[in-house]
Amino acid sequence: MTNKADKVIPLADIRYASRVPHIPARLQAPTGLLSDTLGRPLHDLRISVTDRCNFRCSYCMPREVFDKDYAFLPQSSLLSFEEITRLAKIFVAHGVEKIRLTGGEPLLRKHLEVLIEMLARLTTNASKPLDITLTTNASLLAKKAQSLKDAGLQRVTVSLDGLDDATFRQMNDVDFPVAEVLKGIEVAQKVGLAPLKVNMVVKRGTNDAEILPMARHFRHSGVVLRFIEYMDVGATNGWRMDEVLPSAQVIERLKAEFPLTAIDPNYPGETAQRWRYADGAGEIGVISSVTQAFCRDCNRARLSTEGKLFLCLFASQGHDLRALLRGNYDDQQIAAAVGHIWQARGDRYSELRAALPPDASPDGGAKRVEMSYIGG
Ligand SMILES: Nc1nc2c(ncn2[C@@H]2O[C@H](COP(=O)(O)OP(=O)(O)OP(=O)(O)O)[C@@H](O)[C@H]2O)c(=O)[nH]1
Ligand SMILES: C[S@@+](CC[C@H](N)C(=O)[O-])C[C@H]1O[C@@H](n2cnc3c(N)ncnc32)[C@H](O)[C@@H]1O
Ligand code: SF4
Ligand code: SF4
């Protein structure tokens, strides 16, 4: 069964919505807060700036699928920086306070600093600066950290799946060394991209032996290390439940060496459950998307590289905002369309999946978009 809210709203409906002479005041830009059918506001916008990547992490872009014949998006499909900024402004008017640039590998997008500069000029409805951040594999971070910071990027999240070089090279599948990622982290910290977070996807039997070494390494460093449960996102990674190490077990392993205390979320709907080292060495987090779904507070919208709006990481279809941008629609009409789409949202894939047997899927096997396309 496909979730109704995952269906693409036909353009005709959007036109109709936009032509209604009295668009409800809360859908006019600036709009104030929207909420979806489950009462969830719109808070984060995750923008994918490229579907390409120089890594082939097995859990995300397995090389057998993402090979030289894979049809990546052509340049003409990509939203321009002006189009992205125009949409970002509309989302901010709807209440978005955080923008995360992702991909694919976002640092592969040429002149990304220019986009960051454009986004950094936007302010929230409360006239505060936006929280602008980026998730990266850090392969280009040492080289780019200073210019990203100068452009207005505030912080950065680096993905790193272990410290053991052989394990990491095997997981990224392009023989990329740990040392260069650590160098990227060091430079990013030096230029003031803070707080810096490190995300580690944990695959049981592949890199779970890296949990403790990673914790030891990043204690006292100011880096917030977060362990992510391996997810069944996309349709190509061959996900199996027995390769998921539940976060509860990650915490047990950590607690055996370092006493930990649970702490409150930074904000409603945060993906990570936070824990603090009892000895003051900093904090860690766990993102338990599989075993403790957090859909109830999910306030994240996702914009694909070609301008489709996705309401869930596990969606199979998006809403084509590029058609509106490149059609004859003004900002207010596009804001109305976004408002309607968000108000019709009822997505909660992970919660539904958790209620089913491990090999069943709440979308009835619909082909889900890939993480590298939608942005993680
Ligand atoms: N299932 C699910 N997983 C998510 C969602 N958002 C993020 N994740 C996963 O959590 C990981 C960490 O997310 P980040 O990109 O660091 O974003 P964040 O946790 O919102 O970041 P902060 O702003 O630092 O709290 C992602 O790479 C995804 O694997 C979501 O809405 N649903
Ligand atoms: C898709 S990547 C894009 C950004 C950048 N290339 C990177 O790796 O940081 C975003 C995040 O998704 C995570 N991710 C990808 N596939 C995943 C999966 N199957 N389960 C859990 N997390 C996944 C990655 O580890 C990364 O932290
Ligand atoms: S997780 Fe990031 S670095 Fe790894 S293949 Fe996916 S997009 Fe590339
Ligand atoms: S599964 Fe979908 S609805 Fe649930 S938290 Fe993730 S993105 Fe949000």
Automatic annotation (TrEMBL):
| Residues holding [4Fe-4S] cluster 2 | 295, 298, 312
Output the Pfam families linked to this UniProt entry: Mob_synth_C, Radical_SAM
Whether Metal-binding counts among this entry's keywords is yes
Q: How is the cofactor bound?
A: Binds 2 [4Fe-4S] clusters. Binds 1 [4Fe-4S] cluster coordinated with 3 cysteines and an exchangeable S-adenosyl-L-methionine and 1 [4Fe-4S] cluster coordinated with 3 cysteines and the GTP-derived substrate.
Question: What EC number(s) does this enzyme carry?
Answer: 4.1.99.22
User: What cofactors does the UniProt entry give for this protein?
Assistant: [4Fe-4S] cluster
Q: Which domain of life is it from?
A: Bacteria
Record keyword tRNA processing present: no
- Enumerate the UniProt keywords alphabetically: 4Fe-4S, GTP-binding, Iron, Iron-sulfur, Lyase, Metal-binding, Molybdenum cofactor biosynthesis, Nucleotide-binding, S-adenosyl-L-methionine
Q: Which positions does UniProt annotate for [4Fe-4S] cluster 1 binding?
A: 53, 57, 60
Which residues are involved in binding GTP?
46, 100, 135, 197, 300-302
Cite the binding residues for S-adenosyl-L-methionine. 59, 104, 159, 231
Q: In which pathway does it act?
A: Cofactor biosynthesis; molybdopterin biosynthesis
Q: Which reaction does it catalyse?
A: GTP + AH2 + S-adenosyl-L-methionine = (8S)-3',8-cyclo-7,8-dihydroguanosine 5'-triphosphate + 5'-deoxyadenosine + L-methionine + A + H(+)
Molecular functions per Gene Ontology = GTP 3',8'-cyclase activity
Q: Which InterPro entries match?
A: Aldolase_TIM (IPR013785), Elp3/MiaA/NifB-like_rSAM (IPR006638), MoaA (IPR013483), MoaA-like (IPR040064), MoaA_NifB_PqqE_Fe-S-bd_CS (IPR000385), MoaA_twitch (IPR010505), MoCo_biosynth_MoaA/MoaC (IPR050105), rSAM (IPR007197)
Q: Enumerate the spans annotated as Radical SAM core domain.
A: 37-264
What is annotated about its quaternary structure and interactions? Monomer and homodimer.
Family as reported in the entry's similarity comment: Belongs to the radical SAM superfamily. MoaA family.
Function, as annotated: Catalyzes the cyclization of GTP to (8S)-3',8-cyclo-7,8-dihydroguanosine 5'-triphosphate.
Family matches, as HAMAP family? MoaA_B (MF_01225_B)
Identification of the protein by name: GTP 3',8-cyclase
- Can you name the source organism? Polaromonas jejuensis
Lineage, highest ranks first:
Bacteria, Pseudomonadati, Pseudomonadota, Betaproteobacteria, Burkholderiales
**Gene from which this protein is expressed:** moaA
